[in-house]
Amino acid sequence: MSPGPAYRSFGTSWIEAPLPPVPPGEPASWLLLTDEHPVALGRAVALALALAEAGDEALSLPQDDLGELAAFVAERRVRGVVFLTGAPHAYHDPEDAQDLLLSVLSVVARLGPGVRLHLVTQSSGEPGLVFLRGLVRALAFDRPGLRASLVDCDARSEVEVLVRELRSDAPDDEVRWRHDVRYAARLTRVPLAGGVPAGPGAYAITGGFGVLGQATARRLADGGATRIVLCGRHGGPVALPGVDVVAVTGDIAEPGVAERLVAAATADGLRLRGIVHTPGSRWRAKVLGACRLHEATADTPPDWWLLYSSSAALFGAPGRTAAATADAWLDAFAAWRRSRGLPATTVNWGPWTADPLLDPMTLTEGLEALPAVLASGLPSVGIARLDTARVAARYPELTRRPFFSALLGEPEPPDSDPAIPRRPVNHA
Ligand SMILES: NC(=O)c1ccc[n+]([C@@H]2O[C@H](COP(=O)([O-])OP(=O)(O)OC[C@H]3O[C@@H](n4cnc5c(N)ncnc54)[C@H](OP(=O)(O)O)[C@@H]3O)[C@@H](O)[C@H]2O)c1
Description:
35% of the residues lie in helices and 21% in strands. The protein has a 15-stranded mixed beta sheet, sandwiched between helices. By secondary structure, the chain is an alpha/beta fold. It has helices at residues 38-53, 69-75, 94-110, 127-130, 132-142, 159-168, 211-222, 257-266, 283-296, 311-315, 321-339, 363-368, 370-375, 388-394, 402-408, and strands spanning 8-16, 29-34, 57-60, 78-84, 116-121, 149-153, 174-178, 181-189, 202-206, 227-232, 244-249, 272-277, 304-310, 345-349, 380-384. The longest helix has 19 residues, at 321-339. Bound molecules: NADP nicotinamide-adenine-dinucleotide phosphate. NADP nicotinamide-adenine-dinucleotide phosphate binds at residues 206-207, 209-213, 231-234, 251-253, 278-281, 285, 289, 308, 310, 323, 349, 351-352.
């Protein structure tokens, strides 16, 4: 048993959070930036007009002059930088989503403290836009002075609500406007219960030769799996008692590998019961690999699909922007699939080793939670050991972030009341 608080389950919930009144003050200057998608440019023009109507000034800076950003912001006394994105379909391809991330990061790199960064999307649930929340969470640690926020509007929200959002300067950093009603994200505990072992059938694991992939394969074998297909770029022989173990060697992000994985799992008419996607820590393998699996299973969706994400996407983490954003894409992808009636669940795993934010868990502890995670019916569940008192002492500024404030202000529940059942369970 690891020392420290019990591991628990976490998630994000959205609460109605009306804006506070706009504080009185001088007219402000806002710098509006876009990634040059025509829809984004149109939104910037509409916002500029609405800001002018409210008495503020909207500024623009051509893409070629981005090198002058810091000086421009200081000279023009810009209160906030607003980055507006285009239509959701423009970011559906993972490469386009990654380009967007790089564009935003190049703005972040040039901004000094004292100016707030607002990312404005109209995502319609598109993972290639929703994943920007992972960047906001990472920036809360790495660039707290930016007070980065993500504001997602629906098509029915008027541009005036965005003007009020900017001018009121509310501390929420993940905001959704739906039919002109404002919601803000809060980190919450998620009670989990129940769950059933895997049972006979076929299972496929990408990253199946890695640490988590192997540990998950053992759980599935203990639970009665008939066949387990392991995928990695460099596979080796693996034996699991009583299980038909098949290796599919290849890069899951390359065309055809996911199809081979599915074909190997369903050979001899076996039913594909579950998929675990855990191929290392890079954007391409995670994100493009998930897209390939999505396409390869279009006609034969599995009963369940687990995607291993990280607590970096849910809580943020210092110095882990790459993991937070790729994993936030997986989280958003799971929600996107569910909105289409397809199975998908991400697990935002906390760390297994020493970490500045969270206490480490053992692999055994973490994997115990899988049946309950799947039974929850939620798109994403965080499993981590969060010592709220330690985190609040180490990162006091987090307690002022509404996203964290409720949880970090809460006493740790007693260990006798675990969020996750402790009876021996095999796996999902
Ligand atoms: N370990 C942790 O503390 C931790 C915590 C939270 C979340 N996670 C998440 O859990 C996942 C796995 O972690 P891990 O510790 O098991 O990592 P790992 O031991 O490095 O295993 C990753 C496996 O993925 C395979 N892989 C990499 N790229 C691939 C590709 N393009 N196609 C197919 N297979 C590929 C690798 O094998 P090849 O190189 O041979 O392909 C490797 O066997 C990661 O997504 C990580 O973000 C881990």
